[in-house]
Specification:
Helix content is about 15%, strand content about 50%. By secondary structure, it is mainly beta. The protein has one domain: Immunoglobulin-like. It is globular, with a radius of gyration of 19 Å.
């Protein structure tokens, strides 16, 4: 029983991520949780090539000095961001959101690591190719038929 409480307490220290933007029409940008027996294991992010997704980091309030690392920046690049919102901390204080942006650079799969003073979260990122452009002649011909 002691070990279960210790594991649960340690897991609670890890940061939590929240999607703050959406994909443009016809593209993908989705952040999902992958849960295990003890709760949140990691995050899964699907992103179209050329799309940027804003994500916030919380750990009992905005994460303090998070480090974001990509195993393969040629597939998915991660950069610190500044959002135009304040988050409530305690009863009277507000502070800027702790945020970063993930950019889909090339189709493939990689992993991001979000590290804070108290914990780490992993994000498995899959970047997909954008859909091919519509053929105007095919669209016009289909509409005429």
């Amino acid at each position: 029983m002691k070990y279960a409480l210790l594991i649960a307490a340690l897991a609670a220290c890890n940061p939590y991520l929240t999607q703050q933007s959406v994909a443009p029409p016809g593209r993908a940008a989705r952040l999902d949780t992958v849960d295990g027996f003890w709760g949140l294991k990691y995050y899964r992010l699907e992103l179209s090539k050329g799309v940027a997704l804003a994500v916030t980091c919380e750990q009992g309030g905005p994460c303090s000095h998070p480090q974001m690392l990509s195993d393969d920046p040629a597939i998915a690049e991660v950069r610190p961001a500044s959002l135009t919102q304040l988050q409530q901390v305690g009863l009277t204080m507000q502070t800027p959101a702790s945020a970063f942006v993930v950019v889909g650079k090339a189709p493939g799969t990689t992993k991001l690591h979000v590290r804070t003073h108290d914990g780490t979260r992993d994000v498995v990122v899959t970047v997909i190719a954008p859909p091919p452009p519509a053929n105007e002649q095919t669209v016009a011909k289909t509409a005429a038929e």
